[in-house]
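Example for tutorial group B:
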């Protein structure tokens, strides 16, 4: 179950603390978005299976940082990551931990580019990859959204939308908070 859900959500479901029922609760939380800058330009230079390999390497590195800093990964869509802090529990340092994760991820991206080049498993374009990151803290609704056939724990609300818009402004591999 932990391979399909963030560890905090999986643990709560397994313990019975969280139910797999539709509905949500208002909370304050810190929302995080990251996206590889210009990733769509890389696609034509790689075979599809190499894109999957590269993304899996990238997501492993970046998700480990998020989890180490107490965050939960909401979803990954292609080369983007949506995560949150302070939603599953009252974490007074949620925003600070999200910012620390963002800084670590920027450093990790330099190491990732170097390691992928040294690995020589995939021939990468000459320009190193970078990622933009947006972070926002505010009121959100957290809960299970979906239908009788498929539900997904997620966060919605204006604070989430603002974090996404902030990330989209960070097109040169920067962090905006």
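The residue assignment follows.
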């Amino acid at each position: 179950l932990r391979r399909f859900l963030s560890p905090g959500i999986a643990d709560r479901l397994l313990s019975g603390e969280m139910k797999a029922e539709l509905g949500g609760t208002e909370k304050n939380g810190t929302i995080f978005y990251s996206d590889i800058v210009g990733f769509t330009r890389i696609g034509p230079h790689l075979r599809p299976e190499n894109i999957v390999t590269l993304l899996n390497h990238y997501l492993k590195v970046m998700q480990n940082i998020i989890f180490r800093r107490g965050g939960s990964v909401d979803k990954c869509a292609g080369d983007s990551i949506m995560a949150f802090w302070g939603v599953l529990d009252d974490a007074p340092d949620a925003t600070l931990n999200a910012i620390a994760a963002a800084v670590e991820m920027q450093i990790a991206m330099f190491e990732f580019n170097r390691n992928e080049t040294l690995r020589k498993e995939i021939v990468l374009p000459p320009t190193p990859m970078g990622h933009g990151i947006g972070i926002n803290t505010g009121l959100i609704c957290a809960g299970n959204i979906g239908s009788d056939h498929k539900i997904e724990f997620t966060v919605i609300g204006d604070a989430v939308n603002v974090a996404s818009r902030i990330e989209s402004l960070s097109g040169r591999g920067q962090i905006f908070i």
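The mean pLDDT is 87. Compare this with the pattern of hydrophobic and polar residues in the output above.
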